[in-house]
Design brief:
Keywords: DNA-binding, Transcription, Transcription regulation. This protein is 72% helix and 0% strand. With 188 residues, it is mainly α.
Amino acid sequence: MAERTLRADAERSVRAVLEAAERVLAEDPGASMEQIAAAAGVARTTIHRRFANRQALIEALAASAARQLAQAVDDGRPDTAPPLVAMHRITANVLQVKSAWAFALGLPADPNGEAAALHQDINRRCTVVLKRARADGLIDEAADLDWVRRVYYALIGESLHGDADNADPDTLAARIIDTLLHGAGPRP
């Protein structure tokens, strides 16, 4: 029982450190491990015990954020929900994760690291949803799905600027999906 408590405590400490690192580094990318420890409410030795160095902390931060992003995609049921429903759910979920973990998700991923592998899987899963949407007639048969995916990602990124803090993720998701599928041209 004590072992389980220690694991849970260690997990909470790591979570607190990663959340603090996101906040502190978003404001000051050059912040020290000591500043992150103070913001997390843990001793400096706790951070050094969990992370060998600053780069290890950064890699853990990127991997944690990528795992949350992958979970956001999974929670949208990309393989089983109707494509339009999946696209909306995934978009709303991703907006929440991206707004909470903007610094970590903006980090360049180590090509051999966990975060890069997760991002590749997210790209693959996005393409699967877009193929399903195309099969349902939501996307033109001739559309280049890689291009559609990149435009979709750009719409998500742009929606996080401006007054996105005041917008409901579902409202933003609806705008993104509508723009992706119908563009800005006049409607019949």
